[in-house]
Amino acid sequence: MPTTTVTVKATPAPTDSSVAPSTPSAQAEDPLGCPTSTATVLAALYADGDTCTNVGERYTLAGADLACTKDRDGSIVWMTKSKADKLAADLAAEKAAADAKAAADAKAAADAKAAADAKAAADAKAAADAQAAADAQTAAQQAAQQQQASSVYYANCTAARAAGAAPLYAGQPGYRIGLDRDRDGVACER
Length: 190
What we know:
By secondary structure, this protein is an alpha+beta fold. Helix content is 41%, strand content 16%.
């Protein structure tokens, strides 16, 4: 831990005959109140705000209780312990707030994605239901045509001609293979 010693030597002030010591203890001082003896004291080498190199290092001497701390702007400086503790608490609170915001944003994004997925699933189901309904309608129409085709019966081509239905084509109501001699898909063609 760096320290330095400083020797302070007292120099008596010029005497003034108008000022006289009033008490015996005052005789150790000059009339202006300055000490008259020499003293060696320890002086702190670092002060609040001075740069340092090892984050976490402590320096306590001559009334200075400092911690080497990374400041908000990224510089590494000596700070009083109370100031360093407050900075650490502030940074922790800011990080907690940022983490909470990030978690809330992630939850909102997940909720939005879930809602979009649910909507897409509902849309897909609606499209499948619509396709199924269309397929059912087409099947019903085909069944009706087949029933209609099978409900029309011509005993022979003369009956088909008399009804105005000749010639009959395959798939058309009244067509049957028995009326199509050459089996070319056209009955009662002559």
